[in-house]
Design brief:
The protein has 162 residues and is of the alpha+beta class. Helix content is 25%, strand content 34%. The strands form two sheets. It has a five-stranded antiparallel sheet with strand order 1-2-3-6-7, with helices on both faces. Strands 4-5-8 form a three-stranded antiparallel sheet. The chain is globular.
């Protein structure tokens, strides 16, 4: 396993659509392992392959219990709504307010090509949507209805603590 460089805003790869994964081989397994290690090292909740320069439909999300490997994902169902703070490893130090579904059900493949379904609520639902949008070249700041200044961010955290 190895740490990969996380691309940041302005890098062309982040704005391009990723291609479907068709080979479930050792190279894919290495990419998944590297992405999980890179995400954990950066204290992220999720990481998409375009963020490490690979235009493939591959995502990892830390659920709090495990790292979910999500390949060729599609969103099957959404429900409810949450409104909250969002950040991104590719836009370091900046945060915005984004509306997302409260619950999300996805269908994806695992590292061996087997299809499965998973559901997420709250932060995990937000991560599913955020990371899947990366696969289509969309960064969260295009979805944010307000990007916060440092002062607004501090005030936001103060309000959350109360």
């Amino acid at each position: 396993m190895a740490l990969r460089t996380i691309l940041t805003e302005g890098e062309d790869t982040l704005y391009r659509k990723s291609r479907e994964v068709v080979k479930f081989d050792d190279r894919l397994h290495e990419l998944l392992d590297d992405m999980a290690e890179t995400m954990n090292q950066a204290n992220g909740v999720g990481l998409a392959a375009p963020q490490v320069g690979i235009l493939r439909r591959v995502v990892v999300v830390h659920t709090g219990e495990e790292v979910l490997e999500i390949i060729n994902p599609e969103i099957l169902e959404t429900s409810g709504e949450q409104d909250g703070l969002e950040g991104c490893l590719s836009i370091p130090g900046r945060y915005g307010l984004v509306k997302r579904p409260m619950k999300v059900k996805i269908r994806a493949q695992d590292r061996n090509g087997e299809w499965y379904e998973a559901e997420g609520e709250g932060l995990i639902a937000r991560a599913f949507c955020h990371e899947i949008e990366h696969l289509d070249g969309i960064l969260y700041n295009k979805r944010a209805y307000k990007m916060l200044t440092q002062q607004e961010l501090e005030e936001y955290y103060e309000e959350e603590d109360e």
